[in-house]
Amino acid sequence: MKIAVCLSHVPDTTTRIRFVDNNTQLDTNGVQWIINPWDELALTRALEIKEASAGRVEKVTVVHVGRTEADPTLRKAMAIGADSAIRVDADPADAFSVASQLAAAFRQYPFDLIFCGIESSDYNNSAVGGMLAELLSVTSVSAVSGIEPAGEGWLLCRDIDGGVEKIYAESPMVAIVQKGIAREPRIPSMRGIMMAKQKPLQVVPAVEVNPLTEYLGFETPAPKPPCRKLDPDQVKELAELLHKEAKVI
Amino acid sequence: MSVLVYAENWDGKFKKITHELVSYASGIASLTGGEVNVLSVGKVDEEELAKLGRFGAEKIWKVEGEEYTFLDNRVFASVIAEAVEKTGSRTVALAHNNAGKALAPCLSARLKAALGAAVVALPESHEPFVVKKKVFNGNAFARIALRTETRVLTLMQNSYGIHENEKQPEIKDFVAEKAEKPAIRVEDVQKQTGKILLTDADIVVSGGRGMKGSENWTMLEELAGVLHAATACSRPVSDEGWRPHSEHTGQTGKIIAPSLYIAVGISGAIQHMAGVRGSKYIVAINKDPDAPIFEMADYGIVGDAFKVVPEFTRAVEELKKS
Question: Which terminal CB of chain A, N or C, has fewer other CB atoms within 10 Å?
Answer without folding.
Answer: N
